[in-house]
Fold:
Amino acid sequence: MLPTDGVLLRIFIGEADRYDKQPLYEWIVTQAKTNGLAGATVLRGLMGFGANSRVIHTFKIERLSEDLPIIVELVDTSEKIEAFLLYIERHIRCGWLATTEPIRIRFYRGETPAKSDTDAQG
Structure:
């Protein structure tokens, strides 16, 4: 269960960014799972630029980029997000932007086993 008040962490990186030969977004999500965060989603952008970009990276055919923008979104409590940020800051030295914002968690549910017919009757 998660409390109602949470934090959304967004990490902006490039598709070509790596950590130890692994895509950086994969490393971040794996570390989030290992550190017990509630959830993570990776979003691939169609267009963008950042602090290290001199060109706009885009998915247009005439200028197909191999380094599209990636946003990794993670949700959990403020304490867990702050601890995770401290952890990844020790490993990722440059080329990323992280933002946080308070959120209200409406529900957080995993799968529940289906009730059998006898459970439903009794």
